[in-house]
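Before the break, one more example. Copy the sequence into your notebook; we will annotate it together after we see the structure.
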Amino acid sequence: MGGLGRIAFLGTGAFGVPLLARVAKMADQLLVVSQPDRPAGRRLQLRATPITTYAREHDLDVLTPARLRSGDAQAALNEWGPDGLLLVAYGQMVPKALLEMGTRPPLNVHPSLLPRHRGAAPVAGTILAGDERGGVTLMIMTAELDAGPIVASWPVELTGRETTPELEARLADLAADVVPPELERWAAGTVTAKPQDSGAATHVHPFTREDGWIDWRRPATEIDRQVRALQPWPGAWTTVDDRRLHVRRARPSAGVDDVPIGALLPGDEPAVACGAGALVLEIVQPEGRATMPAGDWRRGLAREHVLLGTARPAEVVR
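Here is what the structure looks like once it is written out:
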């Protein structure tokens, strides 16, 4: 097919794979740049990123520097001489020297409606905030993170029940459909962009294990968003005594008066009293065990009255 010239595609996560498949057919020459293979799983075997896996399976040229800022990485890209850079969820800041490489402005595909949810976890940020819409933004990269001028954006309406993996997959397919025509304009030198409204910007920081801790004093609707947003990492979790219990799937419901916050409520389905309302537990994972229906977990408890979340994150995170 061709037509895009020499393109360096920088990506890491699964979000970029559908678009990479399209770009591989559109570029005259393509260099894929991704993060190095890293140990993963219980056996700590080296595992390639989703982008690297796709590239190797389709015999695409791949570069996997540990640091994009390293002299070797920049020299390799400079020697390859791309016409333009396209970044899709790469996971590292791009140094100024690379932003200035090529004859076209560098582009970035971001899975949120910028300037909302700049930063490392925009899809989770969209769900955590309870936004009614998510989307994909194509922007020109600048030295400031996710702050460059916007070429185009494409909104999608949300149901309010999406998990991060589900919404990310939906946005990945959307990007593969809507971004390629803009890349053709990019190659033709006719792409235009408008500055972002920095005053409307929000930011999402990288998550830690502690961010998954459920504070049952919050409303059930907020905790529900936490459960859906923080998948697969770090997961939403609470404690039973001093052991972690991950909540893998849940939904908010009406609460019960005059019960302690965090109490496991009586009834046909396991539910936990929250600051407002209750959270019905559907799928849970006790520490050291496999995921299971929450009803099975409840039937296995040694006592009837259980208070969740009495141990704080610092006491159990390790």
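The first helix runs from residue 17 to 26. The chain has a mean pLDDT of 94. Try to locate both features in your own notes.
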